[in-house]
Amino acid sequence: MRILVTGGAGFIGSYFVRRLEMSAENEILVYDNLHPQVHGNEAVPPIFGPKVEFIRGDVRDASLLRETIKRFRPNAIAHLASETGTGQSHDEISRYADVNIMGTTYLFEGIRAMGRELDWFLLTSSRAVYGEGAYINSQHRLMANVVRRLGDLEAGRFGVYDSNGLELTSIPSSSIITPTPLSVYAATKLTQEHLARSILSTSNARLLIYRFQNVFGAGQSLINPYTGVLSIFISRLLQGKPIGIYEDGEVSRDFIYVDDVVAAMIAGISRDVRPERPLDIGSGNASKIYDVAIKLARLAGYEGFDLPITGEFRPGDIRHAVADTSYSRSVLEWSPKVSLEEGLERLYVWAKDRISFPS
Fold it and tell me: Domain for residue 120, yes or no?
């Protein structure tokens, strides 16, 4: 296979490329802009093997992207290049739309100009497209398109409520429910999905759309404030800085280790899988942010550590996130292997060699 990987120098992308390298039959081209927010101002590409070519380029550079595709002539593409971060997306709307939406259109224009049909196209999307996700009421009826009202948040009512003010119960989300993006980032990721479906609908290419939950692990950016809550927590712990927990400490997320995410991606491309809908990739377990922060603190050597619950909130943040992975497990014949505890320990061991506690 000749595989083009956009965003292949990023956290998930570099893990994925190294797995692709393990097959002697693959030739790989990594296309990545090494954004300073993720890689730092003195960014250098990861060290890959001899079968990997690296091009420093932005997906917004339509000309370079088209020339790269025309020369390399891939028969498979994994599109990971994306701006991430729900909070930042509210402040930089045009940037997120430019990279995530226009960059994706330039990629497809390059594919069409190449004049070669792809074997598969893999798109990494996000659970953010679900918004608050799936909930049920006291009669166990599924509630769709739920949102948290600003007035409730300001009053310290952080749950998700129905029109009568009764609190709803979160259940795992899957691609059978209608997406309800509540951030600019989420809207751009859902648009990517629509673009991929519509453009590839007249081809024989296999389309694989992965909606990731909270991916973490050794190698994720420790300088990007939008890279994930765990890297933020561990960076602050290792620097002796305080951590505050937003809302009431009950916010939960589905954390999945990067090795398991990449295993799901490899399972999809290496078998003749043609999913009928997006694949939800997570552990299937909801973990409270407060509890995970305590686990990290214990790894860092803090005994009897407690965290202040601040009551602060960020508009656009969701309350709970957990994936229903039953369809993905069945289609991919895949399941996560790394427990939260093992993953946190791997992240901590890696991070402590890169962050110094101040003397």
Answer: yes
So which residues are the catalytic ones?
185
How many Å apart are CA 174 and CA 276, to the nearest integer? Answer: 13
Token pair of 264, please? 């799901």
CA 331 to CA 158: how far, in whole Å? Answer: 36
The tally of domains found in the chain comes to 1
Block residue for tokens 């377990």: 285
Nearest to 127 by CA among 323, 294, 270: 323
The model carries a pTM of: 0.95
Position 206 in a domain: yes
* Residue 145 CB-density burial (10 A; 0-12 exposed, 13-18 middle, 19+ buried): exposed
Query: Which DSSP letter does residue 320 get?
Result: B
**For residue 336, is it within any domain?**
yes
CA 117 – CA 102 distance, rounded (Å): 21
Q: What is the CATH number of the domain that holds 331?
A: 3.40.50.720
CA distance 26 to 102: 28
What is the rounded CA–CA span in Å between residue 28 and residue 49?
10
CA distance 314 to 301: 30
Across the strands, what pairs with 125? 211
The reported pLDDT for the residue numbered 71 is 97
> Can you list the residues of the chain whose pLDDT is less than 50?
none
Q: What are phi and psi of 297, to 5 degrees?
A: -60, -40
SS3 348: helix
Query: CA 337, CA 355: separation in Å to the nearest integer?
Result: 28
pLDDT attached to residue 97: 97
What's the CA gap between 150 and 91, in Å, rounded?
18
Instruction: Write the pLDDT tens digit of every residue in 143-173.
Output: 988 999 999 999 999 999 999 999 999 999 9
Q: Under a CB-based contact definition with an 8 Å cutoff, are residues 80 and 7 in contact?
A: yes
* Residue pLDDT, tens place only, 111-135: 999 999 999 999 999 999 999 999 9
